[in-house]
Specification:
4 helices, three-stranded antiparallel beta sheet, mainly alpha, 88 residues
Length: 88
């Protein structure tokens, strides 16, 4: 038999509540859970999925967008200039 979990269930938040706080669709969080990128837990009724706020913060930080390289930025600048020129 597994030892009892030391973390209180009240420290966890539901996927719905986390999604609302982040202003994103709950499906994005559920997808991350089912892909293994974000740990989810079923506590109590077995239907509701809960998240550990610390793990949620780690997942959010992993979503950081890296700044573009100089070459990529130049490519985007040229492409926008072409589109702007065509619009005239």
């Amino acid at each position: 038999m597994l030892p009892p979990v030391q973390t209180e269930a009240s420290a966890f938040i539901t996927v719905a509540r986390a999604a609302k706080a982040l202003r994103i669709n709950p499906r994005k969080l559920r997808r991350a859970i089912y892909q293994g990128a974000l740990p989810g837990y079923r506590i109590g009724d077995g239907r509701t999925v809960y998240l550990d706020p610390a793990e949620l913060r780690r997942w959010i930080r992993a979503q950081r967008i890296a700044p573009p390289t100089a070459a990529a930025a130049e490519h985007v600048r040229r492409r926008l200039a072409e589109l702007d020129h065509r619009a005239r």
